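Two records follow; treat each independently.
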Amino acid sequence: MRSIEITDSQLLLGNDGEIVNPGWARSQIWQYKRDMIKAPKFRIKEWDYYMIIHDADGPDDESFAAAFTLSDDGYIGLQSVSLLHFGPDTPHEHTQTVLNVFPMGKMHMPESSEKGNASFKNDTLHLLYKKDENSRHIKCAFKNFNNGKNLKADIILDEPHMDSMVIATPWDKKHAFYYNQKINCMKASGTITYDGKTYSFDKNKDYATLDWGRGVWTYDNTWYWGNGNAKIDGHDFGFNIGYGFGNTSAATENVIIYDGIVHKLDDITIEIPNDISLYDMDSPRYMEDWKISSSDKRFEMTFKPVLDRAAKLDYKLIISDQHQVFGRMNGKAVLDDDKVIEVKDMLCFIEKVHNKY
């Protein structure tokens, strides 16, 4: 497919509220300005989502992950925290969400990922993202996170100068657009305390990803998104794959990140085992092996699920069916210079989400 790399700094939207130059970039060169959006405030969606994963060193260690979300989705805000355990016992997770109605810009989410802080505070949850010059700081205090047990987190993410994945694509509807950045391979340190236990991140081997998004979405969407980071043979390696985010004729968000450099991939296909019923109803078998392949044959993987973080909501006008599946990735990734990276048992996630909101 055609993939347009944008390299010149410019405004994201024109005076008509449409993206001026759709495409992808290695940094946030499009300037997002909320007051240039022509859609109603209740349709604007702004979010910052962090995923931090610790993969076990040996039999005395445990693999775990944490996710933090701050979001202003127009007529509703969803602020959430997840703590996930991947073994050695039965994998399990807990996600707690705080809803706030009609934020519609009152959360003052930053217009750039490069500066500004984001926060939410009420009687239950205090979640702060602080942006420093070369790092990001996550602080969280969640009362009654699970069955009366509190959770606290204090995490630092080192962010040296490096490429990221940035995409700006329209939807096939007037004034709707998707502006997104994925920052992979941020080195994580710090702790989470919960239920009498301390979970520690080690910046020598643990990584985080930021999913930073701003835009106006259409009402009914299904998307696929996968992301992960690891140290492979002493090198920082990450990937981001996905589709279902608007009209991607100008570019996709499929990339490999290797030692801070983005290597662009073509189209990605994510195959989930599926039983199609007599009534043509999907019945995905999420906990069986998935296949991931790229049209340029530079990302060929098998994904073995470990844990399905499933959530289903039905509030009539707001419907969400989410499957964020964590597992182990095995296969090969090919860089721009044809170097082949062997990926073995990489702990990561791929999700399929259907939302009406």
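The next record belongs to a different protein.
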Amino acid sequence: MKKLYALLMLGALGACSSVPEQRLTVPRAPVEAKQRIAFASVALREVSLPGYAAGEQIYLSDSNGILSTQPGLLWADDPGRAITLELSRHLAQMTGARVAAEPWPFSGFPEAQVEVRIEEMVAQDIGVLRLSGQYFVSSETGRARARLFDLSVPVAADDDAGVAAIAAARGQAVRDLAVEIARNGLR
């Protein structure tokens, strides 16, 4: 991971010259587990992200908590929109329920609503991506839940993987968050 951090810092040093823009996609993390939930339909509100994670730039945190970016390297999609759609897809795949991001595209109302507020989403130079925050589940039946989450996913230290390893770790962390919501929030 130190080499990944060095790569980001080297990019920062070259910021004075013209850096071509590159956009990084997040690979789909496979959903293998199935989870039964108490609701046939679930609406997911747009995920709330901290300021540094809501933008297009990709950040890495050093051991002192200082965030750095590599000029010209950006997420391929708006992170709030992308994570909301990833969560929606994962929840639908693992539960078999009708799951959609708001605004609700179907007639009638969903049986449950999920709101996710991410407090921290950052790759750390120690080789992990941290995803933490809180989610809320509400329903007309009165089942209301609020749960904290704190997930860590290893970031591959392979030199060939580079920053793509951060994207893969983010995809896995979002999938793990969907598992957490299905198992502990929607049952």
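Discussion point: Residues 93 and 184 are 17 Å apart (CA to CA). How would you locate this feature using only the token line?
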